[in-house]
């Protein structure tokens, strides 16, 4: 092989498409071919570690940047940094004031905590996400009772979002017209931590993504590949725009650069 590269792939709408998520066969081939060539393959996802590990196991990927850059898995060791507590408290106060349903994750499990059935019922009815997360109801829930928060969710539309002043100081991602996820949005943080551990050079980093939460990962010193189905703001930062994720986009890019045959 040529010089070893270190690949970091977003999951949703980059590696996996549709709902429920499916990995195209061409993407499976490309990932295996990269590994067979001796390259380092990792995911770089906004998903919590618990929601990424089974996906990675299925693909034979052992390396992970998770939780929007706040999580890192190296040699099986999981290290996850929680959200900024004051940031979460501030925005939840505004959710409460404006009667916006919300929930939070308190650990690395598929469980969200909320004060009543309003939030989970809304998510299940509109998005059919009954199996997405389990729910724990905490009556009279007070956000200040929790020191460690890993993710937050709010059920609000685009018009409501525009009226929330506090969101200007919150890192969050919108994957749907119906809800937002309060999460870290700097996957480069986890990548840079790994670079320091493994003494990796900038010119050997390759990142693939599709959405706004990949923007901070599209650093000028790294090789940046945007999927054809990416948002325009990410395409503008890319070194190469490949085909759509469901049109062999990952395999096409890897062959284009000669990383695989």
TrEMBL record:
Keywords: Hydrolase. It holds the Pfam family Hydrolase_3. The keyword Hydrolase applies. GO terms for molecular function: magnesium ion binding; phosphatase activity. InterPro entries: HAD-like_sf, HAD-SF_hydro_IIB, HAD_sf. GO terms for cellular component: cytosol. This is Cof-like hydrolase. It comes from Peptostreptococcus anaerobius 653-L.
């Amino acid at each position: 092989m040529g010089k070893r590269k270190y690949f970091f792939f977003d999951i949703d709408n980059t590696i996996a498409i549709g709902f429920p998520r499916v990995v195209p066969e061409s993407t499976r081939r490309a990932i295996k071919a990269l590994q067979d060539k001796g390259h380092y393959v990792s995911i770089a996802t906004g998903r919590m570690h618990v929601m990424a590990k089974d996906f990675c196991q299925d693909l034979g990927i052992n390396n992970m940047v998770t939780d929007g850059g706040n999580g890192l898995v190296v040699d099986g060791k999981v290290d996850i940094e929680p959200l900024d507590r004051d940031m979460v408290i501030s925005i939840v106060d505004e959710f409460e004031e404006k009667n916006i349903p919300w929930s939070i994750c308190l650990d690395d499990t598929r469980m969200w905590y909320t004060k009543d059935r309003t939030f989970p019922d809304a998510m299940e009815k509109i998005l059919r996400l009954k199996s997405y997360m389990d729910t724990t109801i905490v009556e009279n829930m007070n956000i200040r009772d929790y020191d460690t928060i890993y993710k937050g969710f709010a059920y609000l539309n685009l018009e409501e979002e525009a009226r929330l002043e506090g969101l200007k100081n919150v890192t969050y991602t919108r994957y749907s017209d119906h809800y937002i996820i309060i999460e870290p949005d700097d996957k480069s943080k986890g990548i840079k931590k790994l670079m320091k551990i493994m003494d990796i050079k900038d010119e050997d980093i390759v990142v693939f993504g599709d959405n706004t939460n990949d923007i901070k990962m599209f650093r000028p010193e790294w090789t940046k590949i945007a999927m054809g189905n990416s948002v325009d703001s990410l395409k503008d930062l890319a070194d190469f725009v490949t085909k759509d994720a469901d049109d062999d986009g990952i395999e096409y890019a890897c062959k284009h650069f000669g990383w695989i045959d």
